[in-house]
């Protein structure tokens, strides 16, 4: 099959355009889209101002967009209001006062509740409006949300992100979008403010599953890294040197260099909460089960994240999973 390649300048990577999935990549963080169109015209809503939502909304405000926010815990809106955002007291209020509304919620339950529940975003939707869910959820939840939104005549795009707190602050996220392609094109200038690249993956569900596959790999990688750090200490090596050696070789990953030094000091400042990584592994396991695929490494990693949660580490960074390994070592020595 002949494949077309797109060049993504900010990543300096060739991207393959296959016959089924249109993969596109925008290099620009300005308000003009990749096709050379103009910036987004209209009001932007943002629901969910946690670790990710707050900096994403903040970047939209700083880029000059007219942004209206809502968050379950209202006080988290204050820093955004100081930057010039408007406030609405419900997701429905945001959706009805905005042309396009983004949602960045914790998990499938909260994403569905905020979109489809009482006073949810769907109640404020109408033809011509758009809803972009950037939360990490499973494909069934995304399809459910899409159904509630589109039956109002509005358009739906799922757009989970790869990249953590710092990339969100720096506008360097990677968007994994799927759903209404004209909404994708319409919001591209907004995605380009918040991210460094964007992929359009076809039907609703493909973005969600892509995100789960990526985070399944990440969760297992972190456990493997934690095992290596602990083993190195046990055999008398300096784990800081392990971090340095890994950073220079073929298995180098920014995640190891970023998290390694603090893991060695048993410090876990939260960028990606451990409870969300465990949620993603749980959802990836269900996804694998749905197609009878065995993912034993991810299954074992998931068990460790569950142990870490039981140790009270749910709200720490996911690198705190190393504490679950330490606890296992201690209990085996007793
Ligand atoms: N942090 C990261 O590095 C990344 C996270 N993600 C994904 O992005 C999503 C958000 O992550 P993050 O910002 O870190 O998470 P946070 O836990 O910091 O924020 C979660 C948000 O969801 C809201 N929320 C939770 N439950 C409910 C509910 N029942 N009803 C209404 N609102 C609710 C919270 O509101 P309140 O403030 O009231 O608690 C908050 O706004 C998750 O799906 C995560 O997996 C994706 C990429 C990176
Ligand atoms: O979902 C987490 C991330 O870092 O991406």
TrEMBL record:
Catalytic residues, chain numbering: 211
Pfam families listed in its UniProt record: NAD_binding_11, NAD_binding_2
Any one of the GO CC terms: chloroplast
6-phosphogluconate dehydrogenase NADP-binding domain boundaries: 43-202
UniProt keyword annotations, A-Z: NAD, NADP, Oxidoreductase, Stress response
PROSITE patterns reported for this sequence: 3_HYDROXYISOBUT_DH
Catalytic activity: glycolate + NADP(+) = glyoxylate + NADPH + H(+); 4-hydroxybutanoate + NADP(+) = succinate semialdehyde + NADPH + H(+)
Signal peptide: none
Function: Catalyzes the NADPH-dependent reduction of glyoxylate to glycolate as well as succinic semialdehyde (SSA) to gamma-hydroxybutyrate in vitro. May function in redox homeostasis and play a role in oxidative stress tolerance by detoxifying glyoxylate and SSA generated in glycolate metabolism and GABA metabolism, respectively.
Protein name (Swiss-Prot/TrEMBL): Glyoxylate/succinic semialdehyde reductase 2, chloroplastic
Species annotation: Lolium multiflorum
């Amino acid at each position: 099959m002949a494949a077309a390649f797109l060049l993504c300048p900010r990543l300096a990577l060739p991207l393959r355009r296959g016959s089924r999935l249109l993969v596109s990549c925008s290099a620009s963080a300005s308000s003009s889209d990749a096709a050379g169109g103009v910036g987004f015209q209209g009001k932007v809503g943002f629901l969910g101002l946690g670790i990710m939502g707050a900096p994403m909304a903040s970047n939209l405000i700083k880029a000059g967009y007219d942004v209206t926010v809502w968050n379950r815990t209202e006080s988290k809106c204050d820093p955004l209001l100081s930057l010039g955002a408007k406030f609405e007291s419900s997701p429905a209020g945001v959706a009805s006062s905005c042309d396009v509304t983004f949602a960045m919620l914790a998990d499938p339950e909260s994403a569905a509740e905020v979109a489809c529940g009482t006073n949810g975003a769907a109640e404020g939707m109408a033809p011509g409006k758009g809803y972009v869910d950037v939360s990490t959820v499973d494909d069934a939840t995304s399809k459910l949300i899409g159904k509630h939104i589109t039956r109002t005549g509005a358009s739906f795009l799922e757009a989970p992100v790869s990249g953590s707190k710092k990339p969100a602050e720096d506008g360097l996220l990677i968007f994994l979008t799927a759903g209404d392609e004209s909404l994708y094109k319409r919001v591209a200038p907004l995605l380009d403010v918040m991210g460094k690249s964007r992929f359009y993956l076809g039907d609703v569900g493909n973005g969600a599953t892509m995100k789960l596959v990526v985070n399944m790999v990440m969760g297992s990688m972190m456990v493997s890294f934690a095992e290596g750090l602990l083993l190195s200490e046990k055999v008398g090596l300096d784990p800081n040197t392990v971090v340095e050696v890994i950073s220079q070789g073929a298995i180098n990953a920014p995640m190891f260099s970023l998290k390694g030094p603090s893991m060695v000091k048993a410090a876990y400042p939260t960028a990606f909460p451990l409870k969300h990584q465990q949620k993603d592994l749980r959802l990836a396991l269900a996804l694998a089960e749905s197609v009878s695929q065995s993912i034993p490494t991810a299954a074992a990693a998931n068990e460790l994240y569950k142990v870490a949660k039981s140790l009270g580490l749910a709200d720490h960074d996911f690198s705190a999973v190393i504490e679950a390994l330490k606890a296992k070592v201690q209990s085996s020595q007793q």
